[in-house]
Amino acid sequence: MSQKVAVLGAGVMGSGIAAHLASAGFQVELLDVKPEWAAGGFDKAKKSKPASFMSPRHAASVRTGGFDENMDRIKDCFWVVEAVTEDLTIKHNLFAKVVPHLGPKAWLTSNTSGIPLARLTEVLPADVKARFFITHFFNPARYMRLLEIVPGVDTNPAAITGFVAIAENRLGKGVVMGKDTVNFIANRIGVHGMMLTLHKSIELGFSVAEVDAITGPAMGRPSSATFNTADLVGLDTLAHVAQNCLDNLPNDEDRVLFEVPAVVKTLIAEKRTGRKAGAGFYKKVGADILALDFATGDYQKAPKPDFPSVKAAKKEEDVGKKIGLLLAADDRAGKFVRACLLRSLAYSANRLGEIADDVRSVDDAMRWGFNWDLGPFELWDALGVGKVIELMQAEGIAIPARAADAAKKGGWYAPAGAPAGRPSPLQKAKAAGAILDKSHCTRLVDLGDGVVGFDFFTKMNALDDGVIKGLQKSLDILESRNDLKGMVISNDATNFSVGANLMLIMMGIMQKNWAQVEAMSKDFQDTFLRMRKLPKPVVAAPYNMTLGGGCEICLGADAIRAHGELYMGLVEVGVGLIPGAGGTLELLKRRLEVVPLRNDITFDRMPYVQDVFMSIGMAKVVTSAFEAKDAGFLRASDGISFNRDNLVADAKADVIHLASTGYAPPRDSDTLILPGRSGAAVIEAGLYAMEVAGQISAHDRLIGKKLARVLTGGDTDGRTAVAEQTILDLERETFLSLCGEQKTLERIQHMLNTGKPLRN
Predict the structure, then answer these.
(1) Are residues 80 and 196 located together in one domain of the fold?
(2) In whole angstroms, what is the distance from residue 75 CA to residue 701 CA?
(3) 201 is in which domain, residue-wise?
(4) Do 139 and 257 fall within a single domain?
(5) Full strand arrangement of the beta sheet holding 132-137
(6) What residues pair up with 547 in beta bridges, in sequence order?
(7) CATH of the domain at 224
(8) What b/e string do you get for 262-294 counting C-beta neighbours within 10 Å, with b at 16 or more?
(9) CATH number of the structural domain spanning residue 607
(10) Which of 9, 181, 665, 672 could pair covalently with 14 via S-S, beta carbons 3.0-4.6 A apart?
(11) pLDDT above 60 (res 548)
(12) Is residue 422 part of a domain?
């Protein structure tokens, strides 16, 4: 199969799709009406924040051009995706230009979200209709997992099967099969919920800030909640989708909710369309964030909402229990949640058979497309179908016919009770009872084929002595059993790990229990060192936030299999420390592995050491697995998986490959010929200049000076390789000395209280 794809339309959506396809390894033709339009969209994608490309290098895989000048380039593309404006005439005219150049087996798809597929294909010949379907990406294409696929009556099922495999494995998408209905699945349910919330806000007298305080994390939804999300999407875009429902759903029981309120029409008319326009439901004035007053249409600095039920819900980690608290609350927030959520659940149930045939598709669409923690039917089950029905009856909401059947069966997912989404290998092993060891915060499970999986589940997956003890015991089991080949380290949380448990470190500092603090650091170092020296391979499988100690446990593994969306870094300086679990050594080793003259003592290694210093000293966090390779966190041989669902299985395959190809634990590095005191002096001179210029504080300079001594090898002569243990000892000694600094304690306390670094 060709590795070439064409994207027609270089607007925000088209250029974002092109960038993601390029990051996935495809050669991309990005065309628009005029070549300069395509070039302009491409330039915006290269500069976008957050980044559209996983690495700036991937932009080289995109070539721009015009519809008239360069349409012949699509002839060898295996897939052509149309992403022009939502106008049927424009799309039909474009298809007329595409068909003569389309390859005989190439797929032609549309990224439309509002035009029926049957109307789109009116101008297409029969053989192209068989290869035509809708591929609805969500914006931004790189970060939003959902991809809705809508086939037509003429679409060849084999085309869908082949495309789904690519979409899931190469693009990392969560695929949901939708029907040719207005706004498909996610936007139909999601926009209904947003419009319902908007109408109820005005009707019940709730402010913008109050609603966002209720409808965010307290309800298992993103922190952008309702009105911040609307500002991000664009009020004009939201209104367009709602109007599409209003115009094309004459029999929808909640059709009236898709009528855009007058206040929103006024905002759009006055170009106050959200974040892109500088004002929407919110407006930033100086350092203040002002919120819209529905009554006046003006902005004001609203007091921080104070709802007891919302505070209680935020403390609860289980999403079902969290929302159950809100539904049962007798304060204003409880009233608002009952008015909105119950009607939304009923609406979702009434859409079964219309927009999707099964509850799993709806739940997947809402989790992947709107970032809900639970889809509507998962939430029904978590709350109890019977309980939800009782609450609906109390609110005077008509009970969906299918809900009664679900109640009789014991849930929407009964009798199996399987959660929505594809269970990971770790989940499958736990469900099958294949648990070899378990503690209050760790598990060792049998993944089959001689591979075990180590899973840890502390709050935010922070590393503490419990995790380390669980890992040590798991290494004991792995080493003692001849039938085991190796281990995967991963978990199923939102983030791999946010770092070490700062609370434990702070307690040791406040009690001045220096022996305990040093023992903690040494225990981490020794455990990760043992993991690397084990005669069986260990592969770490990180994803999303992998910071501090979470990064160090990965660096201690023999190999890493990373998810494409990886945010990795050694960020300890943000709390006044340096890495204390071997991170300095491991990053230094990786950087020096690429030295072209490894045994030449005259070769200047100082630039490589400075790279590591800047990475740790500036607390740099890479924003993709590809950037992690550039920064040295991943080796060239480490694997990258685009689909999170495949991550553990791919890591398991890596373990089996290593074990079957003569794996032996690595020898200590012979490349650590470090510059010593002269090198440290060079770095210290730079730190002095930065402090004088006001770029860093005196404490930043102190941390930098101590870090420089570790990375340059201490008192080495610069002619012989420094032992790995020497770097570990220097790291631990420096970590402990910084723990004794008052300003470090202040930084730790500030981070624990606010979640933000303190630059004191």
Answers:
(1) no
(2) 59
(3) 186-409
(4) no
(5) 62-66, 27-32, 4-8, 79-82, 107-110, 132-137, 146-151, 174-177
(6) 569
(7) 1.10.1040.50
(8) ebbeebbeeebbbbebebbbbbeeeeeebbbeb
(9) 3.90.226.10
(10) 9
(11) yes
(12) no
Q: Are residues 198 and 172 both part of a single domain? A: no
Interval 226-266: pLDDT, tens: 999 999 999 999 999 999 999 999 999 999 999 999 999 99
Q: Which residue has the tokens 């739940």?
A: 363
Helix (H) / strand (E) element for 288: namely strand 288-292
Residue 541 has pLDDT above 80, yes or no: yes
For the stretch 162-174, pLDDT in tens is 999 999 999 999 9
Count of domains forming the chain: 3
CB of 503 closer than 8 Å to CB of 464 = no
- Among left, alpha and beta (phi > 0; psi -120 to 50; other), residue 697 is beta
Has residue 317 got a pLDDT over 90? Answer: no
- Which one-letter DSSP state was computed for residue 416? T
Same domain, 236 and 376: yes
- Residue 746 resides in a domain: no
Beta carbons of 583 and 555 less than 8 angstroms apart: yes
Same domain, 104 and 236: no
Please check whether residue 421 lies inside any domain of the structure.
no
Q: Give the model's confidence band at 420: pLDDT under 50 very low, under 70 low, under 90 confident, else very high.
A: very low
Q: Give domain status of residue 758, yes or no.
A: no
- Is pTM, for the whole model, over 0.85? yes
Could you tell me if 397 and 479 lie in one domain? no
At 734, list the tokens: 């420096």
Domain end marker among 381, 409, 437: 409
DSSP letters, 50-84, are: S-SSSSGGGGGGEEEEEHHHHGGGGGG-SEEEE--
**Nearest CA-CA partner of 235 in 195, 196, 178:** 195
Q: Per-residue pLDDT tens for 653-687?
A: 999 999 999 999 998 888 899 999 999 999 999 99
Same domain for 203 and 170: no
Q: What is the CATH number of the domain that holds 60?
A: 3.40.50.720
Residue given tokens 């300086």 in the structure block:
573
User: Token digits for 170?
Assistant: 């190469």
Integer CA distances (angstroms), 693 to 72, 614, 648, 689, 704, in order: 56, 18, 47, 6, 16
CA distance 460 to 531: 23
Mean per-residue pLDDT, 387-399: 97
Predicted local confidence at residue 407, as pLDDT: 93
Asked if residue 193 and residue 155 are part of one domain, the reply reads no
Closest residue by Cα to residue 177 from 8, 362, 374 = 362
Residue 419 has pLDDT above 70, yes or no: no
